[in-house]
Amino acid sequence: MKQLLFSIAFFHSLIFIVSIDPPYGPLKIQGKLLTDINGTAVTLRGMSLMGSNYHPQFWNEETIRQLKCSWNINIIRAPITPKSKCCGGWFADPSQPINNPWEWKSTRDREFGRLKQVIDASVKYGIYVIIDWHIFDFGNNTLEQGREFFANVSQTWGNL
Predict the structure, then answer these.
(1) Cα dihedral angle (51, 55, 57, 63), rounded to 10 degrees?
(2) Inter-residue contact 159 to 10 (CB < 8 Å)
(3) Taken in order 83, 89, 95, 100, is the CA torsion positive or negative?
(4) CATH number for the domain harbouring residue 71
(5) Can you give the residue range of the structural domain that contains 101?
(6) Cβ atoms < 10 Å from Cβ of 115
(7) Which of 9, 31, 72, 153 has its CA 20 to 30 A from that of 91?
(8) How does pLDDT run along the chain (160 residues), one tens digit per residue?
(9) Spacing of C-alpha 135 from chain mean position
(10) Considering its fold, how many domains does the chain have in total?
């Protein structure tokens, strides 16, 4: 069974032709423990990608394959940054001039495409995914947009 972790929510499975089951199947919380479906405590080992608007070159299947094969990870964190002062993000407006030479322009479709590459590769290699709506600017009020984002994520991958 394939399983993705969407922040705190867990969803059920869809079988892909070319994919590996994650090591513990569906996960659940029992008290203070993360467990498999039978209630046995599990340990996840993984990495976090840098935000796709900062280092998009790592948001691809080859990175996921290397982390699985060389580091034996079984979970990856994929932080999507809604917007940052320096580096664009989910809500960056490509029509606005760049005020900072380090700012990259981002669009929802491009960021969602990067997320899709990470999730598809993770499913292929049997790796759980934490999708993080990563807000690190306290003035960044994106609750409603976050709901829309996770509705789209749930619609796209909620059956995994």
Answers:
(1) -60
(2) no
(3) positive
(4) 3.20.20.80
(5) 5-157
(6) 24
(7) 9
(8) 444 444 333 333 333 335 678 889 999 999 999 999 999 999 999 999 998 877 889 999 999 999 999 999 999 999 987 766 656 566 655 555 555 444 445 567 778 889 999 999 999 999 999 998 887 665 556 677 788 888 888 999 888 7
(9) 14
(10) 1
